[in-house]
Amino acid sequence: MPIKSYKIAITGLVQGVGFRPFVYVLANTFNLKGTVSNNENGVIICVSGIASNIHSFYKRLVQYPPKLSKIKTHQLTEISHTEFEDFSIVPSQKSGKLNLSLTSDFAICEDCKIEILDITNKRYHYPFTTCVNCGPRWAITNTFPFERKHTTMDAFHMCDACKNEYTDPNNRRFHSQTNSCGTCGIQMSLCDTDGKEQAIDNSQIFTTIAKLIREGQIIAIKNTAGYLLCCDARNGTAVKTLRQRKNRPQKPFAILYPSLNLLKDHMTISVEQAEALTSLESPIVIIPKENYSGPLALEEITPNLNQLGVMLPYTPLLLLLADQLECPIVATSGNIHNSPIISSSELALKALKSVADYFLNHNLSISNPQDDSVIKFSKKYRHKVLFRRSRGYAPNYFGTFKADEKILAMGAHLKSAVAFLPNDYVYISQYLGNLDHADVYNRLTETVSKFITLFEEKPSVILVDAHPTYHSTQYGKELAQNLGVPSIQIQHHKAHLASVLGEHQLFDKETPILGVIWDGTGYGDDGHIWGGEFFEYDSHEIHRISHFEYYDWLAGDKMSKEPRLSLLALATDDLMDEVLPKFTNEEVAVYQTIKKQNRLKTSSVGRLFDAVASLLDICNLNTYEGEAAITLENQIHNYDMAHSTLYASILDNGMIPSKDILRKIYFDLKKGVNMESIIVNFLYTLANIIFQMADRQNIRSIVLSGGVFQNTVLIDMLKEMAKLDYKLYFNRNLSPNDENIAFGQMMYYLNIKTAK
Description:
Layout: E1 3-13, H1 19-29, E2 33-39, E3 42-50, H2 51-63, E4 70-79, E5 87-89, H3 110-116, H4 160-166, E6 188-192, H5 205-214, E7 219-222, E8 227-232, H6 236-246, E9 254-256, H7 260-266, H8 271-277, E10 284-288, H9 298-301, E11 307-311, H10 316-325, E12 329-333, H11 345-352, E13 358-362, E14 374-377, E15 384-388, E16 396-397, E17 407-409, E18 419-421, E19 426-428, H12 438-455, E20 461-465, H13 471-483, E21 487-490, H14 492-503, E22 513-523, E23 529-538, E24 541-547, E25 551-552, H15 558-561, H16 563-570, H17 576-579, H18 585-597, E26 601-602, H19 605-615, H20 627-633, H21 658-671, H22 675-697, E27 701-705, H23 712-722, E28 727-730, H24 741-751
Parallel strand pairs: 2-5, 7-13, 9-11, 10-14, 17-20, 20-21, 22-27, 27-28
Antiparallel strand pairs: 1-3, 1-4, 2-3, 6-13, 7-8, 8-12, 9-12, 10-11, 14-15, 16-19, 17-18, 18-19, 22-23, 23-24, 25-26
């Protein structure tokens, strides 16, 4: 039979996922000769052999690729006959700019778990064990194509045993770019707050750390994506100490459980929660703690909340620590209050020496520090909400987007993330944080610089939020000026709406869509602070059609930190007996004067949540962002909408009566209606109003975004009300909070007629 030659081009998530080793083995199975290599677009395969074998090889490859990969496009092209001696993996050849999916970090695989706990294995207790199926990727990447020399692993030279694995087609570390072992790999050290290393052999280091944690010490542990601050989660005194030192009085801590089996012994875990905990991303999963029966110091870990943020060991290092402890520990981001996660040993010792008692360091550099991602499932419908998109998810966004321009979107302010479209892919950074803080702002500028350098493309347009004082807006405008490119402002809530339209590819939908965008704050087109908005999307145009009635925006950003101020702004005269005791006489005089002189108004539903929380004395002062709304939702254990009360309906002018809702809640409070019923009624009212608006506009497709839609009880109510009569669209691969703004800005610019 005639021998033919073909070139196969594969694009998508095909680097750093064991694709080339997989191709090598498969090609030999079909008795083919040729080469496979990475390039700037993905993977290139050149093969010679019997034509039918090549076609069978190609079909098998694209139908059953490596489990970590995601093929976007594939193309088979016949080329002039080429002679090959065998089939081989050849070094990457980059001849142009990058145009491929980057690779996120992967949780430790089952094979590596077995190895590091097997005393007969060469990787026994080696805390940086990886293979083609797991390990850090984005965290250690300097540039692509994904080769060892392009990562921080380049500092470590493989020993002979590791080289043998690397070159053995039958080994799962065949061409594993992160391959190392205890002989040639990353080294750890334990030091005190003065930086003095403890004289401990590496084989005893986890035994020592476990002993220190049991004794109540706080350990700063350098993981593969950044530092974690850890202590015994059973020890209330240790947890309190960590709170005091980290200046984190109320915000819940994440818990690292040693195993899924132990977690299941202590609390009920749904199938969806278990799958998420053990997934490639291995995020923190927020789980109701109502039936918790374990040893945790619950009140110290998660004050005033009925939920726990839990994760499982996702790196060998954490697994080895968990194996020594066999008990849950606090594992919270290693940073000082409101600063980004720390990845440098030198900076950790400087910044965290007043927080941690000891530091577990290692000598692997981290190029892209990342917090742990956070998700939650609603109780009734198991709807997944992404609260924080970071390790395991960033920096990829899977979707097809074509543009003639190179677009950089700067995102928002409080939940900062940036997006870049330099080629056929959109890249969305990991969660960065609140830009009020200099360290977070610096992380933002570093991330933008990294994207521009990595893709060798400067943006041809920069998109910013319409809020003139957002640091992301100011930096975006300054960068645009320096690069000589235009900057375009995009209204915050329209970006939220566009983020969902983009995720679900709804821009070409032939029937109108109702956009419901509720959050805490966003600069409106009329100069007021929006946050309770209704839009109609139709034929690539967005129009604001209604909103919650305006009320006073008091004391600027202070209002988001003090729910009592939202109550004061919304309260009518008959509520003042409930409001005034929350303030001193001096404060009352100041704020009443401000109210009389105030011209700035808001429609914010987020601040309405704050007002309700304050009225019910659940939270008057936030110690962390969103505390009032989170604590409010956590008062609900169950609900029955059949017995719920509607506090308000849409007014004749199409507006929603913000103050009237609060007054009705006050009346129920005075009548002695229990708190849980009042909150259920409040959420029921909000959900009902959405469908009232849909009916009023004769629309059956509803898009919902903004931080308010992190409330999973509200989501369940909406799904229950919608049944088959309405189609609901939420953010699914992005958080509904401001982390989606950068992507939304980009989708707005590409698809809305008024954008350019």
